[in-house]
Design a protein that fits this description.
Helix 7 packs antiparallel against helix 8. The radius of gyration is 21 Å and the shape is globular. It has ten helices and ten strands. Strands 4, 5, 6, 7, 8 and 10 form a six-stranded mixed beta sheet that branches. By secondary structure, the protein is an alpha+beta fold. Strand 5 (about 115-120) and strand 6 form a beta hairpin.
Length: about 280
């Protein structure tokens, strides 16, 4: 048994969801489609709405505490090739404040409650009890890793773990929302035949976009998967006749971002859905 696999099983037994990382701190992709995130970044086959991959895929969503999954054939092979162990902080009820350099550490020591501290290659991880929305770049050199994120396991560190303070939650709330890129124009072929496209009926198209927005807004778990499947459904219905406009795409992106999806995830999910449909 490899050292990484032994560490992973120990963490899983204590309720910490784990996953293997390959060189460069990148999660394993189990097949060509998943390596390029073409399946929409969905969870592994043990989770609802998953793709058909037989092993670890899709970063935080594949993290698990199931010893049988961790030690099975595909996962075991990944652990043998892994360069590090990662975990899903939010899945363990934790939040990691990732401090990337000495200035960020100095700020944290002046601002945040003392808690368990783990040295990293360039800075420190400050661990708090409690989960929250993850957010990158909340301050220079400061990222928050909790739900829908993964962090490298670097040991237990030093100090007692404090409860997640409002000062950390406020960082994600006060962070300016990233500017959303202009949605990609849809350059897809018109449908065959000379008949009038029913999608050009304003009420039909408006109802479809509104339903898609509501589906994303109502998602309570697996948001990334819901976003991808919703994009796929919209494109399968409206993507081949040129009905969709930048404004429609913008509404879908806005709904996804309101649920915590990053701009990159939105762009990737949209592109992957188009690829899936051959658009």
């Amino acid at each position: 048994m490899s050292e990484h696999l032994r560490t992973a099983l120990g963490l899983a037994a204590s309720g910490v969801p784990v996953l293997p990382l390959r060189a460069g701190k990148v999660p394993f992709g189990n097949c060509t489609r998943c390596a390029d995130n073409a399946c929409g970044g969905r969870p592994n086959m043990k989770n609802p709405g998953s793709c058909a991959c037989p092993g670890p895929c899709h970063a935080w969503a594949a993290a698990t505490t199931d010893a049988e999954v961790i030690g099975c054939g595909p996962w075991r092979r990944a652990w043998l090739r892994a360069s590090a162990v990662a975990y899903h902080p939010g899945g363990a009820g934790l939040t990691v404040v990732d401090l990337d350099h000495v200035d960020a550490i100095a700020w944290a020591r002046e601002t945040l409650p003392v808690t368990q501290t783990v040295p990293t290659t360039r800075g420190e991880h400050w661990l708090y009890l409690g989960r929250m929305q993850s957010a990158n770049g909340v301050r220079p050199g400061v990222d928050i890793k909790s739900t829908m994120a993964y962090a490298r396991w670097l040991g237990f560190g030093a100090g007692a773990m404090a409860y997640l303070p409002d000062a950390v939650r406020a960082l994600a709330v006060s962070k300016p929302a990233p500017a959303r890129p202009t949605p990609q124009a849809l350059t897809v072929p018109a449908p065959d035949g000379n008949g009038e496209c029913r999608h050009r009926t304003p009420a039909f198209l408006e109802r479809g976009i509104a339903m898609a927005e509501q589906r994303i807004t109502d998602a309570t778990s697996g948001v990334h998967n819901v976003v991808y499947r919703t994009f796929l459904a919209v494109l399968s219905t409206h993507g081949r006749c040129g009905c969709l406009t930048d404004a429609h795409v913008g509404r879908l992106f806005t709904a996804a971002q309101a649920k915590g999806e990053s701009t990159r995830h939105c762009v990737d999910a949209w592109a992957n859905a188009r690829t899936r449909l051959g658009l």
